[in-house]
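Notes, Module 5: Reading structure tokens.

Key idea: the token line is not a picture. It is a compressed description, and you learn to read it the same way you learned to read a sequence, by spotting repeated patterns. We will look at two proteins. The first is printed below with its tokens.
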Amino acid sequence: MIAIRALATSFLFFTAFEANAAEVIELTQTGCQFLETEGTDHGFKTTKKADCDAINEKTAAARLAKAKVMRLKPGDYVFRVANKNVPYALGFWLRSKDYDWKNPLHKLTKTSVSGGGLATGKSMDYPVTLKPGEYLFSCPLNPTPNYRLVVSD
């Protein structure tokens, strides 16, 4: 019964997003990066998470300094994330800038949307309501830098 109720709640939640015409934000992941924020495909070759850890250790600070800050208005969004050519499953994590997953209060008071299982050549949707504030997004499975998102009127 609980599983059916959770499924129904999830369906109604997503349907509410569709009814309110949530704006779709498309993001593309390649090895160790999101293309839209960095503006160029660096062509990083990766076969596992450790490859990106090594690449980011050398390049992430300079890449983030040049990366575009995404700016949105408050509202309902669907982040449609695509795995362009990474040969392993990816994910997506969007959260309040000061979100701490270890803090149980943050799970109740802060924004955090995430998921995995994003296979090569596929895309997945992540619905979220964004209020004014600062957010970060990244992929922990294909480690990317923490890109900035600012929501304001």
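Here is the second protein, with the sequence above and the tokens below, as before.
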Amino acid sequence: MRVPLFFTLALSALASPAPAAPNAAQLHQQSCTSCHGSEVYTRPNHRIRSKPQLLKQVRRCTMAAGAKWFDDEIAAVAEYLDANYYHFPR
């Protein structure tokens, strides 16, 4: 009995491992700390006041640094910064 190509492809897609989640700490270390240290996140007069602002700033910084990050990497680094420095309400 021959299995139709569609089913073969569908089964192989299900068996494929999921892509690895971006390592936000490593991305942050490689790109962000080349321009500034963590003091920019902890200073009393920091400009970032919300998660959407943080996401926008991470996107701007990646462009300024010439980092070629995907959207999921930008979001992961924003989450990393929130969890470690900003602590915005969920």
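Summary for the second protein:
- The chain has a mean pLDDT of 83.
- The chain has five helices and no strands.
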